[in-house]
């Protein structure tokens, strides 16, 4: 797969009816093709809403989002990994992968399951899989749409630490191999540092970019010390009071 | 003793009567007639009710517009509908089937409408995110969520339609299980009534275990799977 598309986002305002203050306002950033950007911020700040807007699901906002120069809602589907995996419970693991794209064959689905370490699980229903396995199927589904843009919404939430490390390595490997552009939403500094080239801290109400932090050490060369240092840096930024 | 036997016939006597009725070419034509009427009314009620239920479940203003009418339909006494239609249309097959449908459709509409309202918005979002075309959404996301409600409507529908068809056959028909039971009633023929009832229960059980349960396992089998 070639390098993923660039993303440009300018939100003047995103407001939900009935709320006195907009959720997002005067928010603008660009994502270079083939890079991984983490949107970090406390719960409820609007990270997932922003991701839904990037995926073209939520179009009710004042602003412009382009993906590869095309409005987000007209762009080809992004490989979206929802926070809750969101597998269709009546379809098998392979069925879930094939469901989102007509061109995906059973053979393709098996190959994707193999790449996320679930070879042989193609006939398993979601309820027969553990939370971590479901997350892997969701990742395989997102990658199978052949999208050069991956949108990951808290992909490691509610997983145990051992599984998180395993999943982070898996994600990092696949994102690098696919050359995809990726936006990762998380409230944990460690997740951002493990995967991203750059972290954007969202904070305040309405939420704005509170800090734009390049994570200078290339992500495949970060050791435990780098991760600890960068996590501490992000955590300190997250703890600063919103402007 | 004679009266006791007439009012409370033994199972053997009832079984013997079933055999006599089956060989006298009454039982099978009667059941064929009732089953045919029930099947036509059932299929049409399910089709029309499902379409209306989906529309009301998805389109809020349409639901607001027709919600009152659905309540009226649900609460109109079946006998009133039958008598009115018999007066308007005569004692015809069409009037009987239409009367059954008028009773059944509001129930299907209500079940399907509530089912559609309970659909997961998360799955709609999933379909939107992956730009799934309409046909694919209907087949892979909409239909699997709808099927349990269609089956629930079908099961309650079958039981209701049986009962209503029989009552309407008593009211005005030239044949069928209801018509025959009315004849037996006029002669206080308890054996005949029980014979038809037993066969009736057997047919219902065959439909339940031969058709409904396997169908339910096929479309809702995933619900019973747990890690």
Explain what you see.
The complex is a heterodimer of chains A (243) and B (227). In chain A, helix 2 (93-99) crosses helix 3 (106-115), helix 3 packs across helix 4 and helix 6 (189-195) crosses helix 7. Chain A is built from seven helices and ten strands. In chain A, a hairpin with a 2-residue loop joins strand 4 (62-67) and strand 5. Chain A has two domains: 1-78 and 148-243, Rossmann fold (3-Layer(aba) Sandwich), CATH 3.40.50.300; 85-146. The mean pLDDT of chain A is 86. In chain A, strands 6-7-8-3-9-10 form a six-stranded mixed sheet, with helices on both faces. Chain A has a four-stranded antiparallel sheet with strand order 2-1-4-5, covered by helices on one side. With 243 residues, chain A is of the alpha/beta class. Chain B has a single domain (15-220), classed as MetI-like (MetI-like fold), CATH 1.10.3720.10. With 227 residues, chain B is an all-alpha fold. In chain B, helix 2 packs across helix 10 (190-220), helix 8 (134-171) packs parallel to helix 9 (177-186) and helix 8 (134-171) runs antiparallel to helix 10 (190-220). Chain B is elongated, with a radius of gyration of 22 Å. Chain B has helices at residues 2-7, 11-23, 27-58, 60-75, 78-89, 93-117, 121-129, 134-171, 177-186, 190-220. Chain B is built from ten helices and no strands. Chain B starts with a helix and ends in a 7-residue tail after the last helix.
**Mean pLDDT across every amino acid position of chain B:** 89
Number of H/I helices of chain B: 10
CATH topology label of chain B = MetI-like fold
CATH architecture of the largest domain in chain A: 3-Layer(aba) Sandwich
Largest interface comes to: A-B, 25 and 19 residues
Q: Unreliable segments of chain B (pLDDT under 50, ≥5 consecutive)?
A: none
Q: Gyration radius of chain A, to the nearest Å?
A: 18 Å
CATH class of chain B: Mainly Alpha
Order of helices and strands of chain B: HHHHHHHHHH
Largest sheet of chain B: none
Task: Give me the secondary-structure category of chain A.
Answer: alpha/beta
Report the span from N to C terminus of chain B. Answer: 61 Å
Indicate the radius of gyration of chain B in whole angstroms.
Answer: 22 Å
- Strands ordered across the widest β-sheet of chain A: 6-7-8-3-9-10
């Amino acid at each position: 797969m070639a390098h993923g598309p660039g993303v440009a986002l300018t939100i003047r305002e995103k407001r939900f009816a009935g709320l006195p203050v907009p959720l997002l306002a005067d928010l603008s950033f660009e994502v270079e093709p083939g890079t991984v950007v983490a949107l970090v911020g406390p719960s409820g700040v609007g990270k997932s809403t922003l991701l839904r807007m990037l995926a073209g699901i939520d179009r009710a906002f004042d602003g412009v989002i382009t993906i590869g120069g095309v409005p987000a809602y007209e762009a080809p589907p992004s490989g979206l990994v929802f926070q809750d995996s969101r597998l269709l419970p009546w379809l098998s693991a392979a069925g879930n992968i094939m469901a989102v794209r007509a061109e995906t064959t059973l053979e393709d689905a098996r190959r994707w399951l193999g790449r996320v370490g679930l070879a042989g699980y193609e006939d398993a229903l979601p309820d027969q899989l553990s939370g971590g396995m479901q997350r892997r199927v969701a990742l395989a589904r997102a990658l199978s749409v052949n999208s050069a843009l991956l949108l990951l919404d808290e992909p490691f939430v509610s997983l145990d630490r051992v599984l998180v490390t395993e999943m982070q390595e898996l994600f990092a490997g696949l994102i690098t191999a696919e050359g995809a552009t990726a936006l990762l939403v998380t409230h944990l500094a460690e997740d951002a540092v493990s995967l991203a080239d750059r972290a954007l801290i969202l904070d305040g109400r309405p939420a704005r970019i509170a800090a734009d932090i390049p994570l200078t050490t290339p992500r495949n060369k970060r050791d435990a010390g780098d991760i600890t240092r960068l996590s501490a840096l992000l955590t300190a930024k997250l703890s600063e009071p919103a402007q | 003793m004679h009266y006791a036997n007439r009012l409370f016939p033994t199972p053997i006597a009832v079984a013997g009567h079933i055999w006599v009725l089956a060989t006298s070419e009454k039982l099978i034509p009667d059941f064929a007639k009732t089953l045919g009427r029930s099947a036509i009314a059932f299929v049409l009620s399910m089709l029309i009710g499902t379409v209306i239920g989906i529309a009301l479940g998805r389109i809020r203003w349409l639901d607001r517009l027709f919600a009152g009418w659905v309540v009226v339909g649900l609460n109109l006494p079946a006998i009133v509908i039958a008598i009115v239609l018999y007066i308007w249309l005569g004692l015809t097959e069409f009037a009987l089937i239409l009367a059954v449908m008028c009773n059944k459709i509001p129930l299907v509409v209500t079940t399907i409408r509530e089912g559609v309202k309970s659909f997961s918005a998360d799955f709609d979002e999933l379909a939107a995110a992956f730009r799934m075309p309409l046909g694919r959404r209907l087949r892979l996301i909409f239909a699997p969520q709808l099927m349990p409600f269609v089956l629930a409507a079908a099961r309650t529908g079958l039981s209701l339609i049986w009962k209503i068809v029989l009552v309407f056959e008593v009211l005005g028909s030239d044949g069928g299980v209801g018509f025959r039971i009315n004849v037996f009633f006029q002669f206080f023929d308890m054996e005949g009534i029980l014979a038809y009832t037993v066969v009736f229960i057997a047919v219902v059980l065959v439909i339940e275990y031969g058709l409904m349960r396997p169908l339910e396992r096929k479309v809702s089998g995933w619900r019973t799977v747990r890690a």
